[in-house]
């Protein structure tokens, strides 16, 4: 089964784009993360169910 642009569709479903901030270093597993009360509110709406469905499809394609 071949799904062109599946990764692109997944990234669009979770609203991951050029404005998404990334970190070079991952968070420490030993440090508990807390909500940033003073931080800006997020303004992205993304389709959780659509993202999960696409990830399941991607997983099943890679198993074959």
Walk me through what this model shows:
The protein has 64 residues and is an all-alpha fold. Helix content is 38%, strand content 0%. Helix 1 packs antiparallel against helix 2 (48-63). The chain is extended. The mean pLDDT is 78.
Annotation keywords:
64 residues, mainly alpha, 2 helices, extended
Radius of gyration: 15 Å
Which percent range fits the helix content? Answer: 25-40%
The counted number of beta strands is 0
Flag low-confidence runs: none
Count the helices. How many?
2
Specify the structural class. Answer: mainly alpha
Question: Order of helices and strands, N to C?
Answer: HH
Largest sheet: none
The fraction of residues in strands falls at: under 5%
Distance between the termini: 9 Å
| Overall geometry | extended
> How would you state the average pLDDT, rounded?
78
Quick recap of the structure?
The chain is mainly α and 64 residues long. Helix content is 38%, strand content 0%.
Map the helices and strands:
Elements: H1 6-13, H2 48-63
């Amino acid at each position: 089964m071949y799904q062109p642009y599946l990764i692109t569709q997944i990234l669009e479903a979770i609203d991951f784009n050029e404005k998404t901030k990334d970190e070079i270093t991952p968070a420490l597993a030993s440090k508990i993360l807390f909500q940033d009360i003073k931080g800006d509110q997020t303004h992205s709406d993304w389709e959780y169910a659509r993202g999960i469905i696409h990830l399941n499809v991607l997983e099943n394609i890679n198993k074959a």
